[in-house]
Amino acid sequence: MDLTRIRTQADYDDAYRRSVADPEGFWAAQATGFTWKKRWDRVLEHDFKQGRTQWFIGGSLNITENCLDRHLATRGDQVALIWEPNDPQEPAQHITYRELHARVCRYANVLLRNGVRKGDRVCIYMPMIPELAVAVLACARIGAVHSVVFAGFSAQSIADRILDADAAFVLTSDGMARGARKGPVKGLVDEALAGCPGVKRVIVARHTGDPVAMQAGRDVWLHEELAHVDADRPAEAMDSEDLLFILYTSGSTGKPKGVVHTCGGYMVYVDHSFRNVFQYNDGDIFWCTADVGWITGHSYLIYGPLLAGATTLMFEGIPTYPDAGRFWQVVDKHRVNIFYTAPTAIRSLMAHGLAFVEPCSLASLRTIGSVGEPINEEAWHWYKQHIGKGRCPLVDTWWQTETGGILISSLAGVTDEKPSHAAWPLPGVQPVLLTPEGKEIAENDVEGLLAIKFPWPSIIRTTYGDHERCRQTYFSSYPGYYFTGDGARRDADGRYRIIGRVDDVINVSGHRFGTAEIENAINESDFVVESAVVGYPHDIKGQGIYAYVITDRPVTDAEAVRADIVAMVTKVIGPIAKPDKIQFVSGLPKTRSGKIMRRILRKVAEGEMSSLGDTTTLLDPAVVEEIKAGRM
Ligand code: WT7
């Protein structure tokens, strides 16, 4: 029997009990099946007061040896990566484990040839093409730290991330194709690099064939570089706690922070969660629709499936091109067995109607999954019935960039599921609900702040370049716990239901933004004096962005000013952070100490005008009436 694989409710109960009674023994058993260059000396050391955690201390490994080399003898000719292009008329690519191994080794040699060394930070800004997955793995192969930036972020966002990580290398492509349009990629990198003098080399993959400017001495073409290298590149020996990657994510304050994950613990946890949550079986074709620019793409498009020896599918396009049936057409075309997407995609496809689903058989599907935001009951049932045909288990997986892998989810068909409930903690995960004062709530059928009281192997290690920020953000509000920033309910039987963020973070279509980050962007507009941003319920996106804006002059042409603000947000952050509603106000509801009462702004944005609560502490209660009257 494979001790790392949970197949029944009794297995789960047993694994969970062991993982709490003896976490080190439990995780050591999970880690044993991998290729280690040197076995670890100690399993775990941690200090939640300092926000410090280490796993598999003294061990040495390379995650790509475990994703690729380890499989060559048994599944070298099996397809590792299916690439489905944006345009369904173009051929898909099928890349075997042997081919992927060779491509990663060659790309790794290109990196070395261009001066990249172990420990160097490499920024990757690329659309969803095979070279993106190859680039990520090539960095890991030589021990360079990848920092993938979602190819929908602005030039300024790229620059911020390059500077914060002090990256001297950028891997990119000429352009991208998404739906009916093409977009620039290298052009945005060029714009970003105007402010990044530390970047020494840019390696450009040719994809769309669009013309790009190449700066002599700095920019090289990938295909030209590949002509100079062979496919021989042994995997670098990495300490368990050496950095594997940095991924930037938004918090309630300041600029996005670089969440750091390390080699050993991340590998062990992502593999375990992938195989058990989705109940992966040998030979399954797995499709995660997330972009590699987010943690979901890192953990469950690249690393998790490849560690398991699965066939992973990467899709370049969008769910509605050429029509709103594309996801289901791709499922049938490639006979996908496990399908993992976000509630926002489900809601938007649901709105297009069943006519796009019905022509497809979807008979290959065995498991379906959801991630990124709460899935409302209507979307849950539609997904379960019309995509899962009532027979596929639906796993609602709760986790975060900082957790590296799924922490709360039912295990497909093994533990029970309940609409809109992520349900059960994975083995090794010890969630608690806290009162605002930080007291653990022992009872069931309660609501509280979600925290985790013991480390799991893929917990955040630090925020790049600023450990104090990590300690403050996650480990200081409730000493002794990792605090998630989410509120949750626990039902009478102990299942968790995630309610949403309790901090100033909003989740728009599964993308995370700090309200302060959007306000800072809005405030860059010439028209704007001050702004306040809140989330409000949005039928498709989950949350929409509602901005209250004070201008420096009377607004005569509201649409022009709104367009200017939207353009500014697009420039500073990217089009994904555009406000959905902009209301012009003459003042904001502030307390006498100058603090904005966001509770009031949220209520108005939600349309709950009658229950604004206590407004007596406001400096100027009259602004509330004005805001209510002008609601968008
Ligand atoms: C936040 C983390 C981790 C993958 C993508 C998002 C929300 C995530 C769920 C879920 C309800 C969810 C939480 C969390 N979230 N999954 N299944 N049910 N909420 O990663 O960008 O780091 O955002 O997404 O609020 O804190 P992220």
List the helices and strands and how they pair.
Blueprint: H1 9-21, H2 23-31, E1 42-47, E2 52-57, E3 60-61, H3 63-75, E4 79-84, E5 93-96, H4 97-113, E6 121-125, H5 130-142, E7 145-148, H6 155-165, E8 169-173, E9 175-178, E10 181-184, H7 186-193, E11 201-205, E12 219-221, H8 222-226, E13 238-239, E14 243-249, E15 257-262, H9 263-277, E16 285-288, H10 295-308, E17 311-315, H11 326-334, E18 338-341, H12 343-352, E19 367-371, H13 377-387, E20 394-397, E21 431-434, E22 446-452, E23 462-463, H14 467-475, E24 482-490, E25 496-501, E26 505-508, E27 511-514, H15 515-523, E28 528-538, E29 542-551, H16 558-572, E30 581-584, H17 598-606, H18 622-629
Parallel strand pairs: 4-17, 6-7, 6-8, 7-14, 8-11, 11-12, 16-17, 16-18, 18-19, 19-20, 29-30
Antiparallel strand pairs: 1-2, 3-13, 4-5, 9-10, 14-15, 15-23, 21-22, 22-24, 24-25, 26-27, 28-29
Helix pairs in contact: 1-2, 3-4, 3-10, 4-5, 6-7, 9-10, 12-13, 15-16
The structure holds 5'-O-[(S)-butoxy(hydroxy)phosphoryl]adenosine.
The major pleated sheet works out as: 8 strands, mixed
Number of helices: 18
CATH architecture name of the largest domain: 3-Layer(aba) Sandwich
Overall spatial form: globular
Instruction: Output the CATH topology of the largest domain.
Output: Rossmann fold
The number of domains: 2
Structural class designation: alpha/beta
**Which small-molecule species are bound to the chains here?**
5'-O-[(S)-butoxy(hydroxy)phosphoryl]adenosine
Number of strands: 30
Strand numbers in spatial order across the main sheet: 12-11-8-6-7-14-15-23
For CATH, the homologous superfamily of the largest domain is named as ANL, N-terminal domain
